[in-house]
Design a protein that fits this description.
170 residues, mainly alpha, globular
Length: 170
């Protein structure tokens, strides 16, 4: 994967998220963030840091559309990549269970960072207003992350830590 392919994928996720997902999501207002799922999945699967670059850029673009503060989602998406980067140092990126742990850890980070920054700058919403949607978001975003992982893990030929490593990433 390179910057162009990742940029196209993040653009498609942004278009679907801003136009379609909120209209067709059947479970109420807590629609999953496709940009969050793409950022976590790319941070887990690929060594390059374009997941951080595109997560920050598209997070700011998303803030310009729906938030009162600019940069909140960009910061939250970048911080959500940290569990994936840390767990990836110790586990093979093709393994599913550590990836699911990273996705489950990243969902509350996203929600709490967005709430915390908005609260810091004067939003009256309390944490009890935010927490009821957390289980639904964790489940839906973990399922979407799982689907993305299963789609993109096929592009990895071999891991560098594999003893028969010959090539790179397609």
């Amino acid at each position: 994967m390179n910057y162009l392919k990742a940029g196209i994928f993040f653009t498609v996720c942004w278009l679907v998220q801003t136009t379609l997902i909120w209209r067709i999501w059947p479970f109420g207002a807590a629609a999953p963030s496709l940009l969050f799922c793409a950022a976590v999945c790319f941070a887990w699967l690929y060594d390059e840091y374009y997941s951080l670059v595109y997560a920050a850029g598209f997070g700011i673009l998303l803030d310009l559309q729906v938030q009162t503060l600019v940069g909140v989602q960009g910061l939250a998406f970048v911080l959500c990549c940290i569990p994936a980067f840390l767990l990836r140092m110790y586990f093979n990126p093709e393994r599913l269970l550590p990836f699911l742990v990273a996705a489950i850890l990243a969902a509350p980070i996203n929600l709490i960072v967005v709430w915390g920054v908005n609260r810091l700058f004067g939003s009256p919403a309390g944490i009890l207003f935010v927490l009821p949607s957390l289980p639904e978001l964790i489940i839906s975003q973990t399922i979407i992350c799982l689907i993305l992982h299963l789609l993109f893990v096929r592009t990895i030929i071999k891991d560098k830590r594999d003893r028969r490593y010959i090539g790179g990433v397609m």
